[in-house]
Structure formats: structure tokens, C-alpha cells
Specification:
Radius of gyration: 17 Å
Shape: globular
Strand content: 15-25%
Order of helices and strands: EHEHEHHEHEHEHHEEEHEH
Strand order of the largest sheet: 1-2-3-4-5-6-7-10
Number of strands: 10
Amino acid sequence: MLPILLSDTVTNDLARAVELTLLWGLQGLELRTVGGPDNRIPHVNEAAIDERLWEAELPCPAIAPSMFEGQVSARPVWLNELAMFDETLRLASRLSSKLIVVSAFVREDPFDAEAAVDALRRAGDAAGNKGLQLAVLNEAPMAHPTGRELADLLERVNHPAVGAAWSPVDAWQLGEPPTEGLSALIDRLLLVRCADGRMGKDGWQDTRLDEGEIGWKTLIRQLKAHDFEGPLSLEVYVEPRRKEGLYMATRLIELIETA
């Protein structure tokens, strides 16, 4: 398992993100927004990112463009995203990123599952042709928020270059026990987003990693038992983030080492 940092949960400044990643003992970055708030992958300074990562000898196993975040019924929109996907694939190849993390459309009634499958298969074809993989993320406000729902979608997609990026925090907010979500996705799992929290009287409250309701010790042991070797991407939402990020990164590394 490879502990990495989802950089923009701490800072959009790449130089600072690289510095903190090395300081915290993490082994890579997942890049989503780099620079200003509108600099979402792939609309970033490729050369500057490449140079900074190369200087630090720091890998970037995954990038997360803004893709398939809208309505699947808005066919011209996602067809345009597919038409522009080559730009993301080129960036991924330049950064030696093997995983491209994408969404799975917002919830609609009715939801056109066949159109979603078609979109993901097309993106999977494009990624697979470059030797890359698509990691589809479950997200609480989206159409496939739990591990089971995402697994059902991926079973329909049935593409060798399309797998899962799993966020147990998002699924737990919808009531899915983390161990059940992991069991549903384990055969297609490519990346895990690592955050924690608990449901309080005022709603969801972020906590330090392994101090909330997710049960990270159990999950990482389960991942280890299934020989999962992919990225564990740390998300930091507890303030002050730079101080808490050090604690959380240290705890993540400890959990991996003692699994």
C-alpha cells in the first residue's frame, strides 16, 4: 500500500504540497487542483508540475480531473469531456500517473444507467489504450454514493481499464458500513481515499484519521489480507491542517506498517 496525499485538501500550492508530503513521510501525491481555484487538472502548468515532482523524486500515482460530475442526461456535456480527455491522458503520461480518478454523475430521476455505462466504457477504452486506468469514485451527493452501488455500476461497465476509487467516509454518511463497502469493491479497487469523522447532532464532523467511526485499523488489515498495493490517498479536513496532517499521515503509516 502506498500512502499519498490528496494535495489540495491542504494547499493548492504545489511547492508547499511537495514539502509537506516529504516532511510527513508520505510517498506521493494525488493531484486535483494545483495553483489557483480554477486550475483543476488538466488545466494546470504541466511543465512546472513535472519539474517540481522530478526534483523531489516524488511520484504522482493519480490525478483527478473534473470529469463526469454533471448529469448523465446532459449527453453533449459528457461527450465533450470525452473529446477533451486526451489532454488529461497526455498529462497523466507526462507525470507517470497510472490512475485517473473520475466521478459517476449526479443523481437524477430517472437515472439513465446505460448512458453512464457507455460513458465509462468510452473513457476506459481511451485510458486503456494509453496503458492507464480509470478509477471511478463513490461520492455522497452523486448517483453512486456507496460501495455496493458503485460495484453494481462497475459490474455493468465490465471494462479491464475501469475500476474503483473508494471513499468510505462518503458511503458511511449514507449508512453503508465501511467493511461492507470494501467487500463489495475489493476485486475492482484501485485507490482508497482516507479521511475520518463521526455523525453528530449537527451532522457530519471531520476527525483525525482513526479517531472517528470509519475503523481504519480494521479496513487496512482487510486491504492487507487481499494484497491491495494501490494508493491510500490521505484527505486532511481537520484544522489546523498542516499540524493535523502530520499527525494523520503518521497514523496512516503506522496502520500500514502494523497491519
